[in-house]
Every structure is written in structure tokens, then in C-alpha cells.
Design goal:
By secondary structure, the protein is mainly α. It contains 15 helices and no strands. The protein folds into two domains: 139 residues; 260 residues, no CATH class.
Amino acid sequence: MDMDMDGDRVEFHPVNPGSKTFHWLLTLALLLIVPSLSLVLAFANKLHWSLFLQFVATGFSVFESMFLDFPDPQGHENRTSKGTSWFLSALLGATVFVGSFINGSNWVINRFYPHVRSSGEYGFSYKAYKTLSVLVVLTGWVRVCLAPVALFGFCYGVHTGQCIAHGIMGLAFVGYAFVLCFVLVIPWIRLHQLHAPATGAVPGRSQEFYDSTLMCAWGIVNTFTEHRWGREAWSMGDYQHTAMGIIWWAGGLVGMFLARNNRRTFVPALLLIFTGYSMSQHAQHLAISTKVHGVFGLALMGAGASRIIEISFVLNDKPCTPDGRIVSFQYFPPFCLALAGILFMAANEEQLHLVHDLGADHSAYILVASSAAFVVFLWILLLLALYLKLVGYNEDGEVLGYQHMDVEEFELGELSDETPEA
């Protein structure tokens, strides 16, 4: 586990690095960035522009699936990466079809049946289009992440399971960061419970209730799937991951109980601290891997600790500040989660072997991964800011002429009609 810089280094001579890098950047732009912009436009009910961007992404995706590969050192792209490319093309095709159907139907209705326009404008087809748009963005993320895996020939054989685990858990933490940003930045989610007592509305569930429920369910799955009970001997990894599953469902049950009646609770954040500590203590084959896992654990513990501070001391167990504004500290927990997710995705064993063989140290690698986390976090905030701009809110996330309405009664389409286009 010595990480000294002595000894012969592996010579790395990539084939056509310039064209492969350009291909990946093009994939990032047209299969992740463009669909995410289209998703925002779809949820803001700007169908024409959303559909235009989906057409652009579909054209590139089909062309890439047919003619462009991310070949590994042996000259072929692995089946998972190529299969994801074809699946994304099909998904984009379905999205474009539904969007075109809506667009055509709206034209016919507006032209010949204007009196029934409002009755079907935001029905099932719109919901299907938005759902497909979400799936396109998620699949585009997977496609962009699988491309380097395919290029370097990672994740074959015994490494497949570890790659899947790092990819899924890393994406889960980034997704959790997005959820916390979403409920923080979107005003009617942040403020609706603030106005509930005055309007007599029945409050819903606190964020921690849903967090605890999901953690409990995930813990049950981990408890019984990380080890083949009664069919194989226990390994160190089995003990580690099964124990983590046990504490997640046990803590999740406590969190669900404490979060009843719309109360805030520290339990989900405390589970993040336990998880971060456990992951930071996992011994790895290389020192660089141990150190990267350690920083990942610190990021996760930072997310948990800062979330407890936010809930208990910044907000005093309230859903938001008394004036409804966002406190700067509230951005810290979701950023730590995004950082933890990117670091965990970057902690793949084969990736770290390559970094070690190239002569880089852990600090440089961690800084690069952290830079990626900053970019991802910025992109999340930019998408949310664009959405608020499109539906008629200012860039600070404060409501223009806000009047409280129940979340259950809120219709995004009606809001889009009542507010001027940005």
C-alpha cells in the first residue's frame, strides 16, 4: 500500500486521444446538457423549444449509435455502453413522438376546436412527455459516465460488480443533492408550509420522513443482497456492506417515527455520518484508493453534520426561515452530497490503478474530482434558476406576487398560463 513514486511507471499511449475526447465532449453536450435544458423547458410548458432540443439530441444519438463508438484498447466498445446508446436513441425517439403528437394535437385543437383547448392541454400526454424527458436525462447521464469506462476497458470480469456499486451509489448521492436543491430553491415547495397555518391547509410530510423511508427500504435491500446468506462464506466486504444495510433500516425506522406529524428530525443526517465514517475506514489495495475513499467519507460526514446544523440550529426545526429566504449555509449540505457522489464514482478500483500508474498523487486526483462536483452542482442550480425564470420568478427564487396555494392543487400548466413569458 506504499504510494511512493519509485519504480517503473506504466507508459500510457492512447490511440487518437483528440478525436475520442471531442467525441466524449460532444456526447456530454448533446446527450446530457441539451436534454436537461429540454427537460426544464418541458416542465415550464415551453413545448416547442423543448421538442426542438429533443430532435437535436435524437439525431445525434441515432447517428452515434450507428456510426460512432467508444472503443477500448482492443478496438471495440463493450455491450453495456453500446446497448445504453441504442436504448437512449429509442427513448429519445419515443419522447419526440409523444412531443410531436402533443404539438400536432394542439395545432388541430387551436385551429378547429378552440373551445376545448383548456380541457386537454395539460393531460396525460403532457405528463408522459415530462416523464420521458426525465428518463432521457438519467439515461444520458449513464451514457456519458459509461463512455470513459468503455474507452479505458474498465469493468470487465471480477471488476463488474464494483463498477456497478460505485456507479449506482454515486448517482444516488448526486440525486439526493438535486432533491435537496430542488426543495430548497423552488419557492412554492420551500414556502407552502410557512403559510399553511394561516390558510388552514393540512401540512404534508417533512423532507426527513421521505429520506428515512427511502433509507429504510434501501437498507433492507442491502441487508439481504450484499451476502448470499447460507450459501457462501462471509468476507470483509460482506460484513461491511451488510452492516451498513442494517443500520440504514434500523435508523430509517426511527427517522420515520420521529418525523411523523410533519416534524423535522436529525436521523437521516446521522445515518449519512455513520455511512461516511464506515466508508472512510474501508482498507483498500492501494494507498491512493484508501485516501480517496477517506475524503469521500469526510464529504459524506460533512453533509450529515451540516444538515443537522441546518435543521436544528439554522431553521430551529422549521421548514424554512421566518421570512422564507434561503440562508447561504443551506447550500452546503447538497454540495457535500454532490461532492461525495462524484468522489465515490471516481473511486473505482481500476481508475485509481490507472491514476497511480500515471504517477499522479491522491491530492491532485481529489482536486480534479472536486472540480467536477462543483461543475455538477453549478449545473443543478443553473437549471433550477432557468426553470424559475421561465415560469415567472426572479433569479433570487423569491416569488413575484406570491399567493399561497396547496401543493396538491398546484398546477404547473395553470401557472405558466397566468404569468408572462420570460
